[in-house]
Structures are given as structure tokens and as C-alpha cells.
């Protein structure tokens, strides 16, 4: 079962600087276990372009569409047996301490 894992900032991070695990170790462990299919950091929100079509007209907006303090800073595609396994993978990610992690299962169109 595949999950999209959104890695996000948070306005209320954990205040214990020693709590978060090392990101390079997390990536290596997940890759070795076959749980991480793909992952990457994202450019800052200022580099985003929002695309909409309204009344047949293309509307482009520089930056993110939503006004928010929390932003998506990266993603990983996970291959896990179920949601419980995906939660354990996300729980070990450093941004679970400094930010927040959102998990969503893929929902194929077929």
C-alpha cells in the first residue's frame, strides 16, 4: 500500500533539541527497508506557482494559493503494509518533532 507523506513545518515544534533523529539516518533506514519509494525537499513557497482555470481563462498566481504559516517543505512516497506501518515510519522522521507529517493513502482511479 502506498502513502504520500507530506513533510510540513509547524508553528509549535518540539522544544527538545535532542529528540529529533538524524535525517540522513532516517532516509538510509527507510531505503534499506524498502519503505521509501521516492522523496525530495521542496523549494520555498515563494517559488510556487498556483494554476487555476476559471471560465476557460488560465489564472496564474505567484507563490502558494493558501495563506498559512505552515508549509509543505518536502514529501516522501512510502510503500507500507498498512497505515500502522506508515505511522511508524512517519513517527521516526525528524520533522515529526520540528514540524508535522501528514499521511495520505493513494486512491487509484481504477
UniProtKB/TrEMBL annotation:
Residues 5-105 form the YCII-related domain. InterPro entries: Dimeric_a/b-barrel, YCII. This is Uncharacterized conserved protein. Gene3D superfamilies: Dimeric alpha+beta barrel. Transmembrane segments: none annotated. PANTHER family: BLL7171 PROTEIN, BLL7171 PROTEIN-RELATED. Belongs to the YciI family.
